Automatic annotation (TrEMBL):
PANTHER family named among the record's database cross-references: RAN BINDING PROTEIN 9-RELATED
Organism, as annotated: Rhizophagus irregularis
Alphabetical list of Pfam families matching this protein: SPRY
Domain B30.2/SPRY: 1-131
The protein's name: B30.2/SPRY domain-containing protein
Xref: InterPro entries: B30.2/SPRY, B30.2/SPRY_sf, ConA-like_dom_sf, Gid1/RanBPM/SPLA_SPRY, SPRY_dom, Ubq-SigPath_Reg
Amino acid sequence: MPYDDNDDKKDEDIVSDENNKNFEVLFKRLLLIFFHLRLPGCNTDSIGFHSDEGRIFRNEKYTGSTYAEKWGKVNDVIGCGYYPNNRQVFFTINGENLGIAYTGLLHNILYPTIGSNGHCILKVNFGPEFEYKEANIMSVASKKLLNASKKLLNENEIP
């Protein structure tokens, strides 16, 4: 299912066996073209937040950039947000915004994608309730935002 500019938040709960130390969970927003043999962020026009070292990968194969601490404990909640106006991507861990991970996405249609190099079980949440509280107000899934938008449109309606 395509992910477009009108969608802006997503949470992922990690619910795998905590003794499984040999897997890496990755979250990314991915464009239409994706080679399924590469992990998120290791393909052109993609960004991935890798759990093994907390690094961000943007259109690269090997090195990535320092972004956050290693993550992936059982019950961790990983989120990804996208600001369409300035084309910025950010990630959250357990509701805490980690800051801007990337600016300058050039495409409007994005796909939420998860990659793993081992067995893991994930619970995916597209809303409307997110661990990152700001998303509950700003998300397109938010009733508050929807009601505020309708009110604003009604107030500015041209006769």
